[in-house]
């Protein structure tokens, strides 16, 4: 393991009760993902088996074990957004970006499904970074993508 | 004189453009050299009016709704001159029928002022419940909760007083208060709104619970999809610690209580209380078999109160106003108020707080104004992804736990998702199964495997409705999941499936049943 940031995250949470999730969040926050070679170090630090740590890492949708795309765009696919055309938005997003929802491996933009952003009265909802966008139609989606690329 | 304006800083208002509105007003104020103070209040929950601007005008708190930054040219001048002349002028906010006909207890403060200013909270009646709890014996505090009739608001509606009593009676060196803020049900946002609009109320309720049962540490398990709520909670906790509301010697007493926010990681199942506890312990969010009850062996094996955000928040109201006052709201065994979240295809969506017993039709049409698309309402899903889809014949059901249970539906966390006539109910049934595939913890077979088979069977049924064996198989599978699953995830996934099949058979290519 070659990243000092991983070591920092481990030492920060190793003695916190139930600290594995905060630890994984902090590693992912620092690196964008939790690399496979971090698993043995985490396991040793918290006295759990590598299988257990991998089990936790792979259980939760949030954690990823490969580097993320340059931009990640989450589209809510839950019922309340479906009622407002989330399926059509998803189809538009996939067609316009040329990537399928949920099948990212690096690249420029990744589309992720998300089950509810708590913006259910004003769907369809999209999350980019920590910002949620409401009532997103095809035109607004294109505008969001253009703005996202310009910012980066 | 400084012009003070209130604009919500909650997720939905921001998602609709509240930040851009603030930026435009600040530019206008700088250009006109007008001292401007914009208070990022919480939202009152009228999301159909957001972004909404409020200000004090001639002794009244008035509002201007649906204010987009793109239409804000000359806005500041209008506000200074005569806000009533604005085309979107709403009048006095509290007098709007949408608000005036509500019964606000838990959300009384939401939208009034800066959510993380403790002085504002105190001025609006906050901390009275905690002060009273500190003057009572733990036993008397639990008694108040029991007498109030408060039931868990997360969906299961278990009496809170019984849970607290069990934890109070348990002998242990350490006990915990865990707040379930993993509000994963689509169509629900009441927890989020409370945490973003009035976070101190949750902290106060948790402190009351801690004092009542003898717990010194609380955890808020918050879903990672709520970054704004995380920010607001952490700022509120810092402010509460600084003011001596949390930490050692709560409000100068000899009790100590502290709270930490823990972030989930995108797993719906962690809203189930035992999976949540496993997740808090740093494990996979796997459902535990009960017994042992979390009240006796909960977090890290210690006696633990696990309550939903709204349940804990309501505890502060119960203590402040007394059990009898709280009990006076509601009907039958459903006491207090019900927070309904109007979601999906709805013209006037948002959160309303109403007495139990009101009908679904009233809230969807009187408050909600029907669909946003203007098309006829076809189905209403109540109680989240595990709730039934209700056809028009069921819309006169009174909203209380028992009436819904009798009709084979559930009120759950009060999410009401409206669909217009373009919805394909066979696709919704399939989605319910697919959602269970994605979100099952995998511990029990009926849920883990049943949901996979469920998707397949629905596909076969829709492909060939004449194959009656598939419908029988689906019913059978639903029986197995309902009765054989360890928790509500597998146990209730059949609910949306069966209601779709029963009430909307034509979408599966089936003829309506005689019943």
UniProtKB/TrEMBL annotation, chain A:
<dbReference type="GO" id="GO:0051537">
    <property type="term" value="F:2 iron, 2 sulfur cluster binding"/>
</dbReference>
<dbReference type="InterPro" id="IPR041921">
    <property type="entry name" value="NuoE_N"/>
</dbReference>
<keyword id="KW-0001">2Fe-2S</keyword>
<feature type="binding site">
    <location>
        <position position="81"/>
    </location>
    <ligand>
        <name>[2Fe-2S] cluster</name>
    </ligand>
</feature>
<keyword id="KW-0479">Metal-binding</keyword>
<dbReference type="Pfam" id="PF01257">
    <property type="entry name" value="2Fe-2S_thioredx"/>
</dbReference>
<keyword id="KW-0411">Iron-sulfur</keyword>
<protein>
    <recommendedName>
        <fullName>NADH-quinone oxidoreductase subunit E</fullName>
    </recommendedName>
</protein>
<feature type="binding site">
    <location>
        <position position="120"/>
    </location>
    <ligand>
        <name>[2Fe-2S] cluster</name>
    </ligand>
</feature>
<feature type="binding site">
    <location>
        <position position="76"/>
    </location>
    <ligand>
        <name>[2Fe-2S] cluster</name>
    </ligand>
</feature>
<dbReference type="InterPro" id="IPR002023">
    <property type="entry name" value="NuoE-like"/>
</dbReference>
<feature type="binding site">
    <location>
        <position position="116"/>
    </location>
    <ligand>
        <name>[2Fe-2S] cluster</name>
    </ligand>
</feature>
<dbReference type="GO" id="GO:0046872">
    <property type="term" value="F:metal ion binding"/>
</dbReference>
<comment type="similarity">
    <text>Belongs to the complex I 24 kDa subunit family.</text>
</comment>
<keyword id="KW-0408">Iron</keyword>
<dbReference type="GO" id="GO:0016491">
    <property type="term" value="F:oxidoreductase activity"/>
</dbReference>
<dbReference type="InterPro" id="IPR028431">
    <property type="entry name" value="NADP_DH_HndA-like"/>
</dbReference>
<dbReference type="InterPro" id="IPR036249">
    <property type="entry name" value="Thioredoxin-like_sf"/>
</dbReference>
TrEMBL record, chain B:
<dbReference type="InterPro" id="IPR037207">
    <property type="entry name" value="Nuop51_4Fe4S-bd_sf"/>
</dbReference>
<feature type="domain" description="NADH-ubiquinone oxidoreductase 51kDa subunit iron-sulphur binding">
    <location>
        <begin position="426"/>
        <end position="471"/>
    </location>
</feature>
<dbReference type="GO" id="GO:0051539">
    <property type="term" value="F:4 iron, 4 sulfur cluster binding"/>
</dbReference>
<dbReference type="InterPro" id="IPR019575">
    <property type="entry name" value="Nuop51_4Fe4S-bd"/>
</dbReference>
<keyword id="KW-0408">Iron</keyword>
<dbReference type="InterPro" id="IPR011538">
    <property type="entry name" value="Nuo51_FMN-bd"/>
</dbReference>
<protein>
    <recommendedName>
        <fullName>NADH-quinone oxidoreductase subunit F</fullName>
    </recommendedName>
</protein>
<keyword id="KW-0004">4Fe-4S</keyword>
<dbReference type="GO" id="GO:0046872">
    <property type="term" value="F:metal ion binding"/>
</dbReference>
<comment type="similarity">
    <text>Belongs to the complex I 51 kDa subunit family.</text>
</comment>
<keyword id="KW-0479">Metal-binding</keyword>
<dbReference type="GO" id="GO:0010181">
    <property type="term" value="F:FMN binding"/>
</dbReference>
<keyword id="KW-0411">Iron-sulfur</keyword>
<dbReference type="Pfam" id="PF01512">
    <property type="entry name" value="Complex1_51K"/>
</dbReference>
<dbReference type="GO" id="GO:0008137">
    <property type="term" value="F:NADH dehydrogenase (ubiquinone) activity"/>
</dbReference>
<dbReference type="InterPro" id="IPR001949">
    <property type="entry name" value="NADH-UbQ_OxRdtase_51kDa_CS"/>
</dbReference>
<dbReference type="InterPro" id="IPR037225">
    <property type="entry name" value="Nuo51_FMN-bd_sf"/>
</dbReference>
<dbReference type="Pfam" id="PF10589">
    <property type="entry name" value="NADH_4Fe-4S"/>
</dbReference>
């Amino acid at each position: 393991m070659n990243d000092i940031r991983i070591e920092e995250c481990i030492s920060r949470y190793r003695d916190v009760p139930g600290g594995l999730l905060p630890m994984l969040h902090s590693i992912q926050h620092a690196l964008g993902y939790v690399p496979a070679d971090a698993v043995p170090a985490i396991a040793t630090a918290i006295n759990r088996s590598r299988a257990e740590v991998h089990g936790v890492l792979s259980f939760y949708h949030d954690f990823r074990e490969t580097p993320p795309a340059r931009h990640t765009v989450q589209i809510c696919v839950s019922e309340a957004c479906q009622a407002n055309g989330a399926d059509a938005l998803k189809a538009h997003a996939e067609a316009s970006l040329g990537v399928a929802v949920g099948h990212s491996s690096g690249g420029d933009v990744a589309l992720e499904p998300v089950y509810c952003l708590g913006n259910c009265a004003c769907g369809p909802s999209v999350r980019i970074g920590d910002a949620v966008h409401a009532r997103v139609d095809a035109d607004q989606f294109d505008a969001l993508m253009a703005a996202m690329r310009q910012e980066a | 004189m400084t012009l003070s304006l209130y604009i919500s800083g909650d997720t939905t208002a921001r998602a609709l453009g509240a930040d851009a509105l603030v930026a435009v007003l600040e530019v206008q104020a700088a250009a006109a050299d007008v001292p401007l103070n914009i208070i990022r209040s919480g939202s009152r929950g009228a999301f159909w009016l957001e972004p909404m601007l409020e200000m004090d005008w001639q002794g009244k708190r008035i509002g201007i709704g649906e204010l987009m930054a793109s239409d804000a040219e000359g806005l500041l001048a209008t506000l200074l001159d005569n806000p009533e002349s604005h085309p979107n002028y709403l009048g006095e906010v509290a007098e709007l029928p949408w608000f005036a006909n509500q019964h606000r207890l838990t959300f009384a403060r939401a939208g009034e002022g800066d959510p993380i200013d403790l002085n504002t909270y105190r001025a609006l009646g906050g901390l009275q419940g905690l002060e009273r709890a500190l003057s009572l014996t733990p036993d008397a505090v639990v008694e108040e909760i029991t007498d109030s009739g408060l039931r868990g608001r997360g969906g299961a509606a278990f009496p809170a007083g019984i849970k607290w009593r069990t934890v109070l009676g348990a002998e242990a060196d350490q006990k915990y208060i865990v707040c379930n803020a993993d509000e994963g049900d689509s169509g629900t946002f009441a927890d989020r709104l409370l945490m973003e609009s009035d976070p101190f109320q949750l902290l106060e309720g948790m402190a009351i619970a801690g004092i009542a049962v003898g717990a010194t540490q609380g955890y808020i398990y918050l879903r990672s999809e709520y970054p704004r709520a995380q920010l607001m909670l952490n700022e509120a906790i810092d402010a509460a610690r600084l003011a001596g509301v949390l930490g050692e010697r709560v409000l100068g007493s000899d009790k100590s209580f502290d709270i930490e926010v823990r972030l989930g990681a995108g797993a719906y199942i962690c809203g189930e209380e035992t999976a949540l506890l496993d997740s808090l312990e740093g494990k996979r969010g796997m459902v535990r078999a009960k017994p042992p009850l979390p009240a006796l062996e909960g977090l890290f094996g210690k006696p633990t109160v696990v309550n939903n955000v709204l349940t804990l928040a309501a505890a502060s109201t119960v203590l402040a106003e007394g059990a009898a006052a709280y009990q006076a709201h509601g009907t039958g065994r459903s006491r207090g108020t019900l927070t309904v979240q109007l979601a999906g295809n709805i013209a006037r969506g948002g959160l309303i707080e109403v007495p139990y017993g009101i009908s679904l039709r009233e809230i969807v049409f009187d408050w909600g104004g029907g669909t946003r698309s203007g098309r006829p309402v076809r189905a209403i899903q109540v109680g989240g992804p595990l709730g039934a889809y209700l056809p028009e014949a069921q819309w006169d059901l009174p909203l209380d736990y028992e009436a819904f249970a009798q009709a084979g539906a559930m009120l759950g966390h009060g999410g009401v998702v409206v669909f217009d006539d373009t919805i394909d109910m066979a696709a919704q049934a399939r989605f319910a199964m697919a959602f269970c595939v994605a979100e099952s913890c995998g511990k029990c077979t009926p849920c883990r495997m049943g949901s996979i088979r469920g998707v397949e069977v629905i596909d076969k049924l829709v492909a060939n409705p004449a194959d009656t064996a598939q419908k029988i198989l689906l019913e059978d599978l639903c029986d197995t999941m309902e009765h054989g699953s360890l928790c509500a995830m597998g146990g209730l996934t059949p609910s949306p499936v069966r209601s779709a099949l029963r009430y909307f058979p034509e979408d599966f290519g089936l003829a309506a049943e005689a019943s």
